[in-house]
Amino acid sequence: MSDVIWDLHCHLSGVNGTTPAARIKQILTYADRMGIERLCLYMGMPWSQHPTPAKLRQENDQVLEVLKLHPDRLFGFVYVSGEHVEASLAEIDRCVRDGPMVGIKLWVAKKCNAAELDPIVERAAALKAVIFQHTWFKSDGTTYPGESNPDELVELAKRHPNVPLICGHTGGIWELGIRAVRPYPLISIDLAGSDPTNGFVEMAVRELGPERVLYGSDAGGRSFASQLGKVYGANLPDDQRKLILAGNLKRQLTPIFQAKGIQV
């Protein structure tokens, strides 16, 4: 593949290995096969849906460990939780303000429309960190306690109208997720995690514009190939495909790169 590819959404999961170093080595082996230049990495091993402050720090330390090993390939996002606001603010300061990370990851511990998220978003925005929120629409009873959907992300966006946000997984049911975030130009969507279904990317580009669509894989929970298939299988002109595969993520990361003096 000749396109530059930056993957927004990767984890230390879904591959063998008893240490972060062993796992990232395997993940990068697969990334190399698919021509992926850079990966954004967050959360450690094993995950916790309701991490304690100590668990948040442990998982972030695991990501920091592999960032040191592969600084030319990886960008780190700090894992934070609305259940532990002060601890999360301290982790943002430790890992982003005073460390190498460039974004924050919010998962399922506290719904993202909760007021507890406000100081976390404000601290991240002040540091120009990219803000990534997992979202998923579920109607089958499998919703995790505290899991958010795109409608709830919109509520957060309304309270922070000048802060860019990323809607992780486009809410799983992507037709609903795209429609939910469409009126909010600072909400981008992440393609990661769902099956490579025909029409997903075309609808996203048509409804949101190509500048609001970002490639991610959810590796190692999903394969790079299946998730890249969404983009390469879509009926898109070359310039739009290049934005989705890397250009949009580079643009969103540029403010914090400049603030931290990161050269890429």
Low-confidence stretches: none
Structural class: alpha/beta
Mean pLDDT equals: 97
Strand content: 5-15%
Count of beta strands: 8
Q: Number of helical segments?
A: 9
N-to-C SSE string, H for helix and E for strand: EHEHEHEHEHEHEHEHH
What's the CATH class, please? Alpha Beta
Number of domains: 1
- Biggest pleated sheet: 8 strands, parallel
CATH superfamily: Metal-dependent hydrolases
Key terms:
alpha/beta, 8 strands, 264 residues, 9 helices, TIM Barrel, 43% helix
Question: Would you mind describing this structure in some detail?
Answer:
The structure is a single chain. The protein is α/β, with parallel strands linked by helices. It has a single domain (6-260), classed as TIM Barrel. It is 43% helix and 13% strand. The protein has nine helices and eight strands. An eight-stranded parallel beta sheet has the order 1-2-3-4-5-6-7-8, with helices on both faces. Strand 3, helix 3 and strand 4 form a beta-alpha-beta unit. Helix 2 runs parallel beside helix 3, helix 5 (150-159) runs parallel beside helix 6 (174-181) and helix 6 (174-181) packs parallel to helix 7 (200-208).
How is the topology of this model organized?
Blueprint (H helix, E strand, L loop, with lengths): L5 E5 L9 H14 L4 E4 L11 H17 L4 E7 L4 H13 L5 E4 L10 H10 L3 E5 L15 H10 L5 E4 L5 H8 L5 E4 L9 H9 L4 E2 L9 H9 L5 H23 L4
Parallel strand pairs: 1-2, 2-3, 3-4, 4-5, 5-6, 6-7, 7-8
